[in-house]
Amino acid sequence: MQVQIGCEFVHNLLAPAHAIAQVEPRLDGGFGFLVEAWGLSPDGPSSRYVDRHGNLCRRFTLPAGRSTLRYDARVEVSGDVDEEHLGAVEIPPAQLPGDVLSFMMPSRFCPSDQLANAACELFAGVDPGWSRVQAICDWVHTELSFGYGTTGPTSTAADVFASRRGVCRDYAHLAVTFCRALNIPARYAFGYMPEVGIEPTNEPMDFCAWMEVYLSDRWWTFDPRNNEPRSARVLVGRGRDAVDVAMLTSFGQAPLESLTVWADEVT
């Protein structure tokens, strides 16, 4: 399956600001790049690097005045829906691989220590393993109300648990937090997700956030926002939470004038 993905950021700055963008798919995501274009207008230099989590990052300087940052690509994806393994089990902390342990600890947006009591009250009685993680996704999907502007850039999972409102990033943060509070390794992930195999929502496209959970001997995709297996995900980044995979990080004031995202199946 081929999908067209991309985004456009428009800024209007009073002074130049150095920035890092994470909008390009991971190099290890198994995607076939057919066409790819990056541009900053007015034109300026940029360079790429891979961070400690394996995410592809691009650094550049946003100029003073109005500027447009644009990324556009056509990629090949498998088209398979998210894999499921209902018999996947939780692994005791003592038996987990060393590189998984950091995804059991609290992080800035996922304060699992603060929500430990709530997690135990809600899910300690659920059968461990896949069933428990799915129960967490079911609860988050049902209990939260989706709405743009209901949370801010500094809202944590504890804030979302209290308000019961948020966007897909907040759904993922809360589910990740509950998992970690129960000693289940979980990490935040985001990328592009075309509306493939579902009824079109006719809503403006945006980046999508989900989570990956370590059960049995590998990571599995769970999506508390949509709460159903989906296909054609194009992974951009993964990390402890949104701090590690911010779409745009600026070192200086860089208010966003507009953001447009596209992700469509090419027929």
Order of helices and strands: EEEEEEHHEHEHEEEEEE
Q: List how many beta strands DSSP finds.
A: 14
Strand proportion, as a percent range, falls in: 35-45%
> Largest sheet, if any?
4 strands, antiparallel
* CATH class descriptor of the largest domain: Alpha Beta
Name the average pLDDT. 95
| CATH architecture descriptor name of the largest domain | Roll
End-to-end distance, in Å? 9 Å
What structural class do helix, strand and pairing data support? alpha+beta
Low-confidence stretches: none
Total count of helical runs of at least 4 residues: 4
Radius of gyration based on Cα positions: 19 Å
Gross morphology: globular
CATH fold name of the largest domain:
C8orf32 fold
Helix content estimate: 10-25%
3D structure, described in words:
- There is one protein chain.
- With 267 residues, the chain is α+β, with helices and mostly antiparallel strands.
- The protein has two domains: 2-79 and 247-266, Immunoglobulin-like (Sandwich); 93-230, C8orf32 fold (Roll).
- 16% of the residues lie in helices and 36% in strands.
- The model has no long low-confidence stretch (mean pLDDT 95).
